Amino acid sequence: MFYYVLKYVLLGPLLRLVFRPRIEGLERVPASGPAIIAGNHLSFSDHFLMPAVLKRRITFLAKAEYFTGPGLKGRLTAFFFRSAGQIPVDRSGKEAGQAAIREGLGVLRRGELLGIYPEGTRSHDGRLYKGKVGVAVLALTAGVPVVPCAMIGTFEAQPPGRVVPRIRPVTIRFGEPLDFSRYAGMEREKAVLRAVTDEIVYAILALSGQEYVDEYAAVVKERQTAGERVPRRTPLG
C-alpha cells in the first residue's frame, strides 16, 4: 500500500518535478503478466525514477548494503527501499547469487515485473559495462520477455557521491521486448547464458548510446582504486 503512496503522493511527483523525465516507449512494457525490465544503472535516482513512470508496480533486486547503511542516511535509505517493496540481496559469493535468483523467480511467478541491472552495480563513470548472466538465468528459467531500458541523463544529474541531484531533465527509454523462447530448457548452458546476456546489454546500449567496456564494472572499479590504467573502450561483441 505504501508503495503507491510513495509513487503517487510523496516521491513520484517530486521526482517528476526535479527531473522532468521524458518517457519513450512505455507502451512496450507488457500491461500484464511477468516480465523483466533490464536497465543500465547510472545513478542512485534510477531506483526511484523508473518505478515512478511505470504504470505497473516493479520490484528490484537491490544490494543488501542499501538496507544496512549507518546513520540517518542509512535509515532513510532502508526505509525508502523497504517501502517500495524492494528485495535486499547479498551479492557476496555463489550462494548469494543463487538466493537472488530464487527471489527474482518468486516475483516473476507471481506475474509481476522484476527490475534488474545486468551490470550488477552502478556505473562509476557513465559507461556501460559487461552484463552478468543472472538476468539470462531468470529470463530462461521463468520463460519471460526482457524489456531493455535506458536511463539517459541521470549520471549527470546525480553521479556517484552526489547526495542532492542537479535539477535537469532526463530520458527514460524502453525498447522492444526480447523473446528468448528459442533457448527454452538451456538455462544451464554457459554459452547460451552469455549470448542472451550480451543480447540484452546490446539492446540497452542501442537505446542509451553509451560507450561500452567489455569488462565487469566491479573489476574495473577495483583496478582503478589500485591506481592501474583505465581499460580500453571496446565495441560489444
TrEMBL record:
Q: What Gene Ontology molecular-function terms does this entry list? A: acyltransferase activity
> Lineage in the entry?
Bacteria, Bacillati, Actinomycetota, Actinomycetes, Kitasatosporales
Q: Which organism is it from?
A: Streptomyces eurythermus
Q: Show where the Phospholipid/glycerol acyltransferase domain sits.
A: 35-154
UniProt keyword Cytoplasm, yes or no: no
The family database entries (InterPro entries) matched by this protein are listed as: Plipid/glycerol_acylTrfase
Query: Where does the record place a coiled coil?
Result: none
Q: Which UniProt keywords apply?
A: Acyltransferase, Transferase
* Top-level taxon: Bacteria
Name of the protein in its database record: Lysophospholipid acyltransferase family protein
